[in-house]
Amino acid sequence: MDEKISTYSIIKKFLQNISCSPLRITISMVATFLNKLLDFLPEMFIGMSIEIVTQKQDSLFFKYFPYPVKTQLLIFACITIIAWILESIVEYCAKYSWSMLALSIQHNMRIKLYEHIQSLDLSFFEENHLGKITSIVIDDVNHLERFFDRSLMELLKLIFGSIIALVIFFIISPFITLFMLVPVPFIIFLSRFFHQKLAKLYAQTRTQSAIMLSHIATSIAGILVTKSYVSEKKELQTMILEGEHYNRLNYAVIKTRSLFIPSVRTSIVIAFVGSLVLGGYQVSEGTLSVSLYSILVMMTQRFLWPFTELPKITDTYTKTMASLRRIVAIFHKKGKITDGSVELQPKTMRGDVIFHNVSFSYPSNIHVLHNISFSIPAGATAAFVGSTGSGKSTIAKLLLRFYDPDNGVISIDGIDIRSFTIDSLRGAIGYVNQDPFLYDTTIKENIAYGTPHSDFDDIIRASIAAGAHTFVTTLEDGYETGIGEGGQRLSGGQKQRIAIARALVKASPIFIFDEITSALDNETETFIQQSLNEIIQKKHTTIIIAHRLKMVQSADIIFVLDKGNIVETGTHQELMQRDGIYKKLWES
Ligand SMILES: Nc1ncnc2c1ncn2[C@@H]1O[C@H](COP(=O)(O)OP(=O)(O)OP(=O)(O)O)[C@@H](O)[C@H]1O
Ligand SMILES: [Mg+2]
Predict the structure, then answer these.
(1) From the alpha carbon of 395, which atom of ligand 1 is closest?
(2) What pLDDT does 578 receive?
(3) Cβ-based neighbour number of residue 579 at 10 Å
(4) CA-based diameter of the chain, in Å?
(5) What is the average per-residue pLDDT within 93-108?
(6) Residue nearest to atom 5 of ligand 1 (CA)
(7) Which of 65-79, 159-173, 565-579 has maximum average pLDDT?
(8) Residue ID of nearest Cα to ligand 1 atom 13
(9) Which pLDDT value is given to residue 47?
(10) Which ligand has its closest atom nearest to the C-alpha of 514?
(11) Looking at residue 357, what is its pLDDT?
């Protein structure tokens, strides 16, 4: 995920995904400019007051307000109050506008990123840890908000302020203006130098922070195992080591960052002292008035002092670019499973499933399926049995297009499944996977997860067929019972039955049941087997994957898998007559 991406493509991708109105950006920029312009008024006012008091009738102000000095000062005081209030209003507008912009950037970016992540193949989630993905979607996107909320406004203030100050300087004394500019290249050089150093360090700290997050997420998710194996100390030790590494990286950041500010300050002070002395000479020679000199000295502060903020701005910019780089790296990931254009219609499709010479290996290059061919006629029930790791679940995942085969063709109703839109293909298949996942919500919502508009009667019917209704009704809140994260308030068998009900309520033309009775007792298994037979009744093509052969004996066809090959095919009776793997499995 940390591949090299150019700054240009980072900014381009960023702009494509924030969908901000140009009007809001313009308002924010104009408000910032006005804010900075008005911010210079106090210095001008002080200079003007000195002019009024020292020059009296010769002052510039007298030209426009020819009153006695005291009245002039009162008029001037009123103008100052109005300008001050105006500055406060503009400052409020600028801050509000940038904050709103930052908020919408954060929101839009997070939603687009989340949408993109959802579109990625399963292999992305297998390669990248949950903690790493979460930290990008949460922390890195928050960094963007922080940058736009504060630092960008500071940066623009610095740029606008420098331009305004330079113009005023130039009007007062072009010679001193040139002197003022001397430290600027040094400051820019220092900023670049530290920016490069810090960028590397920030990337390392963020990676380390994601590693820590992954560790915390994993060890808390696996707290049951940690406790039962009394591994708390071991987990804590790992956490301490990771935390220490994180601290070491942060020490390096602090050391580098702390050097930056003094370096910038040193180069600024030279220009400050220079303007003080050179301006003083000009006053003593009579080429510069006292009022302009006072404006100049204060303006020097105004021009150069904000540059001390540059390290902070560069710091946040560097952090933001590191975050943006990680965000864009996810955007650069593209799902290899491309969408087709044909809509698979559940109402009119038949449900013939054919695998023709299908070979497949996972990205980690494990050869899993070798040239597999089989055919399941519409409405038939096919079973896959075989030793663990022989490739049974992989067949189901290929049919759902979680992965595409390396070779061969999988078709439904004679059409290559790659031609179908992924949504319509998956929508036509009711899938209960081997390790069903339940959401932290009510039983009712879990059953209706794929069909949120289903009637409560349909939910109950599916629940009865899945053997879940009886236990659900014994719960205090029945179908409204919350089941906790991952369904942890339910037993393994109860979870399995809710997952079966979730698939049944979908009433898809094709069903895949992968080890759905592994956690059930014999009696419940028999019950589910019978109710499934009633539902299926040659109306649904059904794939049953099972270790427990009781589930598969009534199947129309059974495929026996061994190390990624189909080694036996037939009905239960046919296979029992052969002295093959199936018979051995049945007898064991
Ligand atoms: N996501 C994955 N990445 C890499 N290898 C995988 C992945 N999923 C499964 N495998 C490997 O592919 C092989 C077949 O796995 P599969 O899950 O299809 O087996 P199975 O027949 O369903 O086994 P079981 O009966 O234990 O469920 C196994 O060797 C497994 O290690
Ligand atoms: Mg399996």
Answers:
(1) 18
(2) 87
(3) 8
(4) 122
(5) 91
(6) 362
(7) 565-579
(8) 389
(9) 80
(10) 2
(11) 94
Q: Assign 382 to helix, strand or coil.
A: strand
Cα separation, 57 vs 542, whole angstroms: 101
Which tokens is 281 given? Answer: 């000479």
Ligand 1 pocket at CB < 6 A: 126, 362, 364, 366, 368, 388-394, 434
Q: Which atom of ligand 1 is nearest to the CA of 397?
A: 18
Atom nearest to 564 CA in ligand 1: 14
- Would you say residue 365 has pLDDT above 70? no
Amino acid at 275: S
b/e for 39-58, b at 16 or more Cβ within 10 A?
A: bbbebbbebbbbbbeebeee
Lowest-pLDDT range of 352-356, 424-428, 448-452, 529-533: 529-533
Topology of 7-332 in CATH? ABC transporter transmembrane region fold (1.20.1560)
Residue 519 binned pLDDT confidence (cut-offs 50, 70, 90):
confident
Same fold? 7-332, 353-587: no
How high is the pLDDT of residue 396? 94
pLDDT > 70: percent of the chain: 98
Task: Say how many Å lie between the CA of residue 345 and the centre of ligand 1.
Answer: 31
User: What DSSP string describes 392-436?
Assistant: HHHHHHHHTTSS--SEEEEEETTEEGGGB-HHHHHHTEEEE-SS-
- For residue range 245-272, what is the model confidence (pLDDT) as tens digits? 999 999 999 998 888 878 877 877 777 7
Best of 124, 126, 127, 366 for a ligand 1 pocket test (most atoms within 8 Å of beta carbon): 366
Gap from CA of 182 to ligand 2 centroid (Å): 71
Q: Which residue, judged by its Cα, is nearest atom 9 of ligand 1? A: 394
Residue with more model confidence, 376 or 322: 376
Which pairs from 452-461 meet CB under 8 Å and 24+ separation?
454/505, 458/505, 459/501, 459/505, 461/505
- Structure tokens given for 51: 């002019």
Helix (H, G, I), strand (E, B) or coil at 515: coil
pLDDT (tens digit, 9 = 90+) per residue, 477-514? 899 998 887 777 888 888 889 999 999 998 889 999 99
Question: Do 340 and 428 touch, CB atoms closer than 8 A?
Answer: no
In the predicted structure, residue 17 carries a pLDDT above the cut 80: no
Asked whether 191 and 318 are in contact (CB, 8 A), the reply is no
What pLDDT does 410 receive? 96
CATH topology (fold) of 353-587: Rossmann fold (3.40.50)
Of 349, 350, 355, nearest to 569 by C-alpha is: 355
Report which ligand 1 atom has the smallest distance to the Cα of 390. Answer: 21
Helical spans, DSSP H, in 2-68: 7-18, 22-39, 41-55, 60-64
Residue 511 contacts residue 533 (beta carbons within 8 Å): no
For the CA of 123, the closest atom of ligand 1 is 1
Domain borders along the chain are 7-332, 353-587
Pocket test for ligand 1, best of 359, 369, 370, 392 (most atoms within 8 A of CB): 392
Q: Is the pLDDT of residue 548 over 90?
A: no
Report the separation in Å between the CA atom of 179 and the middle of ligand 1, taken as the mean of its atom positions.
72
